[in-house]
Amino acid sequence: MNEMELKYGCNPNQKPARVFMEKGDLPFTVLNGKPGYINLLDAMNSWQLVQELKKATGLPAAASFKHVSPAGAAVAVPLSETLQKAYFVEGIELSPIATAYIRARGADRMSSYGDFVALSDECDAQTASFLKREVSDGIIAPSYSEAALEILKTKRKGTYLVLQMDPNYQPEKIEKKQVFGITFEQQRNEIDLTEDCLTEIPTKNKDIPAAAKRDLLISLITLKYTQSNSVCYAKDGQAIGIGAGQQSRVHCTRLAGNKADIWYLRQAPQVLSLPFREDVRRPDRDNAIDVYVGDEYMDLLGGDNWKRVFTEKPPVFTKEEKQAWLSTQTGVALGSDAFFPFGDNIERAHKSGVAYVAQAGGSIRDDNVIETCDKYNMAMAMTHIRLFHH
Question: Which residues are catalytic?
Answer without folding.
Answer: 66-67, 229, 390
